[in-house]
Amino acid sequence: MSASMTDMDICEQGEPDWLDVWRVLEPAFRAGESYPLPRDVSEEDAKRYWIKTDGFNAVARDHNGAVLGVYYLRPDQGGPGDHICNAGYVIAEAARGRGLATALCLQSQDQARAMGFRGMKFNLVVSTNEAAVKAWKKAGMEIIGTVPGAFCHPARGFVDAYIMFRAL
């Protein structure tokens, strides 16, 4: 089943959304396969990581209100580098494999353009996360570098991480 923007409602995350967002983030963070956070990260620390005052957070819900996925956008660097954004995405376990990651990435690129960003950069795309790599490529991202052994995967040990970029 493929996803489309009409299959979900994407809106800015508000404080009341946090518990629903945490229910999506927690399993991904606990798995330790894609985010550079301790697997036992506290909810409070995860919230500080995910939500930044200089960024934008979004929640994608289905027509019944269930959270399908979430993302953040923020400047990748400060000062003269603040025109390039960084983004992170998590798709709810039950919603994976439907093209939602690509759809969220494309929508976030539109949001980034509206916020004045000129490019999007992913600093740490774990090479073993093949579904994410495929989704980001479908959304126009390109691998511009590989950092050997940059991520300690819980089952595979040290694996490469990609740096991906797209001009906006």
From TrEMBL:
Residues 8-168 form the N-acetyltransferase domain. The keyword Isomerase does not apply. GO terms for molecular function: acyltransferase activity. Pfam families: Acetyltransf_1. PROSITE patterns: GNAT. Transmembrane segments: none annotated. Its EC number is 2.3.-.-. InterPro entries: Acyl_CoA_acyltransferase, GNAT_dom, Mito_N-acetyltransferase. Keywords: Acyltransferase, Transferase. The keyword Zinc does not apply. It comes from the Bacteria. PANTHER family: ACETYLTRANSFERASE, GNAT FAMILY (PTHR43138), N-ACETYLTRANSFERASE ACA1 (PTHR43138:SF1). This is GNAT family N-acetyltransferase. It comes from Hyphococcus aureus. The lineage of its organism: Bacteria, Pseudomonadati, Pseudomonadota, Alphaproteobacteria, Parvularculales.
